[in-house]
User: Which sequence fits this backbone?
């Protein structure tokens, strides 16, 4: 097989290995309830309470809500880092509960909130770890295996996408928060996933990199067909860059729809319990959220 | 941000390899086969040279030519030609060589276990000695001796099993701690080690106090860490355990890389973390138990060696683990040579030498290199 066709194989491998059912959603979530084990004695402590929704293929879905509304828990359940006590989640039509972790890892890339890396790996080594789920499934590949030329090429492309090639030889422990964040996103991209889950992807980034990351996520969706689910506190960012928004409050879905349907002042005020101003963004026309601000001093 | 490369777009597959994947390798950003072989080749040569130097030193320094001749004769099954060469042969093959082999095996194992524990607990200070795994293994072996395991026919293979059981007991406690915190923060790690070491030491002291005086003295010497006069049969028993333990540990090198990212990230990269951790903890206990039952408590190698190797060769466990094994083995051979020649003919237990080297290093890390700690 030529090297080019090897690369093509990598593109289709995850889709084939997962037996993606035609016409299925990226995620189909049905009546999911989740709570932490230690809370089970309390009757009303569901972190996620009876959630049903689907995530379409090739969409960018933003999950927003106040602190403690269950955003991160939902993301972890979608990544199968936590298993819901009730309900069912299908990943491209296949029950996640019965799917092997490695198979999920070939499909779903996760960028966690805490991206701290404690050991002095280089940036390139860290991104290359994203190829781990695609290792040959022989018994000893967990130890002695080397990445193929194709693995290295894919990792390098992910680094180009996230603009970190110039950092390749740097040690991750010496990076700034933003550089580290981009490294971890590149690692997730190196998994060649079909779905990317991100928890507060722009939290550590300056304005320039916030816009860059958000744009690159949209382009990955448009050009590569990636499905993106991201959790964020930044209502404006979500409004400008997401196709649909899910507003969570106390583990329940308050609204799920396009930005104009969700970013409404009455809805936000009832969930966040504070006044906000919503007007159309002068550039995109999409809703823009502004805090009311304090009264200007010296004016009457 | 750059235009999306064609490589990760569906369908269109402009040749990704035109980006020259060797570029990362040539800049030293990733571990390559060449770097791996060069580093391990140099370390292997160093190990051989140091072992020859260690064979040279002793109550009676032996010329290097003589050493090579005896070793060559032994390999080709030739007998010595005169009485002098018979004596040289006996000293070298029956006294120094087994001891150096034991030193290498023990150092190699302790450093490997240190690497594994540091990745598992995500803490670069983890070490079987500091954590109390060694004292757990020592307690296991001491209990074995108390019940007469060390005197039977199966002594060489049964005592390591007792050590394994003791080490496993310590690791179960550490595993529970790590499971509670997600990782073992530095203070919890040290505290766990202090508590385990205190409890196990008390129990070992109790066993020592109820043994007959001569056995009790032997046990005290063993506890201080010693490589004195091993027989080839005891070496064989140890090798049996270590071959299995280290081979399986080496089969997990890439998994160790991923585990350093933390449990959640490791799972999102497709690892069944619970299974991987349990497997690695059992291997760690097996190797530590086997080593401690033969050589007693030799401390700090598991911490210093991986630290030093990581600084120079990087964090990829595919190189870090075998390189640490070689450096650990070489270091302990050297330390033992110092221990037996420094105030010859009196021998210092080698555990004292490693503790004197490792203790200050530990304090240095705690006081001045906090940035390297978790």
Assistant:
């Amino acid at each position: 097989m030529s090297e080019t066709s090897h690369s093509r194989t990598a593109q289709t491998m995850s889709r084939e290995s997962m037996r993606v059912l035609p016409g299925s959603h990226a995620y189909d979530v049905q009546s999911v309830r989740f709570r932490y084990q230690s809370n089970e004695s309390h009757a009303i402590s569901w972190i996620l309470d009876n959630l049903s929704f689907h995530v379409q293929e090739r969409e960018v879905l933003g999950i927003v809500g106040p602190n403690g509304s269950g955003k991160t828990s939902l993301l972890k359940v979608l990544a199968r880092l936590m298993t819901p006590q009730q309900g069912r989640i299908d990943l491209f039509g296949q029950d996640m509960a019965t799917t092997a972790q490695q198979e999920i890892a070939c499909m779903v890339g996760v960028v966690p909130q805490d991206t701290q890396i404690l050991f002095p790996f280089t940036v390139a080594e860290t991104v290359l770890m994203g190829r781990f789920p695609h290792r040959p499934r022989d018994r000893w590949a967990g130890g002695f295996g080397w990445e193929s030329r194709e693995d290295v090429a894919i990792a390098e492309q992910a680094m180009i996408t996230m603009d970190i090639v110039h950092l390749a030889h740097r040690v991750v422990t010496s990076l700034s928060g933003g550089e580290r964040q981009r490294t971890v996103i590149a690692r997730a991209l190196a998994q060649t996933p079909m779905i990317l889950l991100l928890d507060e992807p722009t939290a550590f980034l300056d304005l320039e990199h916030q816009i860059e990351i958000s744009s690159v996520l949209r382009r990955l969706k448009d050009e590569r067909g990636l499905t993106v689910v991201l959790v964020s506190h930044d209502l404006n960012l979500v409004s400008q860059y997401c196709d649909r928004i899910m507003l969570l409050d106390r583990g329940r879905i308050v609204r799920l729809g396009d930005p104009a349907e969700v970013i409404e002042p009455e809805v936000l005020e009832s969930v966040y319990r504070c006044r906000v101003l919503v007007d159309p963004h002068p550039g995109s026309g999409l809703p823009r959220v502004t805090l009311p601000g304090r009264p200007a001093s010296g004016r009457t | 941000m750059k235009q999306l490369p064609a490589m990760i777009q569906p369908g269109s597959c402009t040749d990704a390899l035109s980006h020259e994947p060797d570029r990362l390798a040539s800049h030293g950003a990733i571990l390559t086969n060449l770097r791996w072989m060069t580093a391990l080749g140099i370390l292997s040569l160093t190990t051989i040279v140091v072992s020859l130097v260690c064979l040279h030193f002793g109550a009676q320094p032996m010329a290097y030519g003589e050493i090579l001749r005896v070793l060559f004769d032994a390999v080709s099954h030739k007998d010595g030609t005169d009485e002098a060469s018979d004596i040289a042969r006996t000293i070298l093959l029956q006294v120094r060589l087994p001891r150096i082999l034991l030193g290498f095996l023990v150092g190699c194992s302790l450093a490997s276990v240190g690497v594994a524990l540091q990745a598992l607990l995500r803490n670069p200070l983890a070490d079987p000695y500091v954590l109390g795994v060694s004292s757990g293994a020592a307690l296991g072996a001491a209990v074995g001796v108390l019940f007469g395991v060390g005197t039977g026919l199966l002594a060489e293979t049964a005592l390591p099993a007792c050590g394994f059981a003791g080490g496993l007991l310590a690791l179960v406690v550490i595993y529970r701690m790590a499971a509670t915190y997600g990782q073992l923060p530095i203070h919890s790690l040290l505290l766990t080690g202090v508590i385990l070491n205190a409890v196990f030491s008390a129990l070992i002291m109790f066993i020592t106090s109820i043994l007959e005086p001569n056995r009790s003295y032997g046990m005290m010497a063993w506890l201080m860490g010693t490589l004195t006069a091993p027989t080839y049969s005891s070496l064989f028993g140890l090798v049996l355990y270590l071959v299995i333990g280290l081979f399986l540990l080496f089969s997990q090198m890439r998994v160790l890389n991923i585990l350093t990212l933390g449990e959640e990230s490791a799972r999102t990269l497709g690892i069944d973390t619970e299974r991987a951790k349990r497997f690695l903890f059992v291997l760690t206990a097996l190797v530590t138990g086997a080593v401690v039952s033969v050589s007693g408590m030799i401390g700090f190698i598991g911490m210093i060696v991986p630290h030093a190797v990581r600084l120079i060769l990087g964090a990829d466990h595919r190189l870090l683990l075998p390189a640490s094994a070689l450096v650990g083995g070489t270091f302990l051979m050297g330390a033992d040579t110092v221990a037996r020649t420094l105030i010859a003919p009196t021998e210092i237990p080698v555990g004292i030498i490693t503790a004197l080297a490792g203790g200050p290093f530990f304090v240095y890390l705690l006081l001045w290199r906090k940035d390297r700690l978790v």
Observations:
- The mean pLDDT of chain B is 81.
- The two ends of chain B are 33 Å apart (CA to CA).
- The longest helix of chain B spans residues 83-120.
- Chain B has 16 helices and no strands.
